[in-house]
Amino acid sequence: MIVSREAFRDLVREAVELLPTELRREVKNVDLVIEDRPTQEDLEVAGLEPGHTLLGLYHGVPLPFRGHESYNLVLPDKISIYQEPIESVCRNRDEIVEQVRITVLHELAHYFGIDDDRLHELGMG
After folding, report:
1. Quick one: which of 22, 48, 95, 98 is 20 to 30 A from 125 by CA?
2. Cross-strand bridge partners of residue 105
3. Among candidates 70, 46, 44, which has minimal Cα distance to 58?
């Protein structure tokens, strides 16, 4: 199933808007971008073995690991959401909507310092 870039962008925006207001207010200096697919470097950074699919990636320093006094005047962190891989694992629009939601939440969780092990425990791995 494939959706237009505009429709996909709307799904990402809707996923962010589903966050509780208190959490959305805490997300600062982060660019959320939609990309067609991950680069080879993205796959390596994510530590994925061949044959695995990367749906999103958080590039940055999670909030709990920032030295607040020394963490200023830095480029924004980046969350990449990869449209083609998400579409490739979904059979219909409803599945795309749900996978975008899960992927956006998963990557924002990394921003808040939640690692993959904990996300798996929470059912968001």
Report:
1. 22
2. none
3. 46
Q: Please, are residues 116 and 122 in contact by the beta-carbon 8 Å criterion?
A: no
**C-alpha to C-alpha distances, 21 to 12, 48, 99, nearest whole angstrom:** 16, 33, 21
According to CATH, the topology of domain 5-121 is Zincin-like (3.30.2010)
| pLDDT level of residue 115 (50, 70, 90 thresholds) | confident
Token pair listed for 34: 């939609």
Task: Enter the tokens of residue 27.
Answer: 């997300």
Edge-to-edge order in the sheet of strand 56-59: 30-35, 77-82, 56-59
Question: Which tens digit of pLDDT belongs to each residue from 25-51?
Answer: 989 889 999 999 999 999 999 998 878
Q: Tell which residue, 70, 98, 71, has the closest CA to residue 86.
A: 98
- DSSP assignment, residue 124? -
